[in-house]
């Protein structure tokens, strides 16, 4: 439903799995911008993170955050 993946027990495990995959892909963009030979300023990197990666991690959090398991929350926090 609109990018939120439900499961029968409402653990949101599949949603967290898909979210971490998407966030990891977007973090590769940041890694490309932070090379040692050519890199962007810290402010640019923070703005890029806030505009690309953070919305992926926080999408539909009002639905899943109150009932998410601790292990799934740790997966998101690791990203």
Give an overview of the whole structure.
With 79 residues, the chain is mostly helical. It has one domain. The chain contains 4 helices and no strands. The model has no long low-confidence stretch (mean pLDDT 81).
Question: What's the rounded overall pLDDT mean?
Answer: 81
Number of strands: 0
Span between N and C termini? 24 Å
Shape: elongated
Strand content: under 5%
| Count of domain modules | 1
Helix run count: 4
- The percent range for helix content is 55-70%
Using only C-alpha atoms, the radius of gyration works out to 14 Å
Uncertain runs are none
Structural class: mainly alpha
Question: Which series of helices and strands comes N to C?
Answer: HHHH
Characterize the largest beta sheet: strand count, sense, and whether it forms a barrel. none
Quaternary form: single chain
Summed up:
The protein is mainly α and 79 residues long. It contains 4 helices and no strands.
Question: Helices, strands, pairings?
Answer:
Layout: H1 13-33, H2 42-58, H3 61-64, H4 70-78
Features:
single chain; 79 residues; mainly alpha; elongated
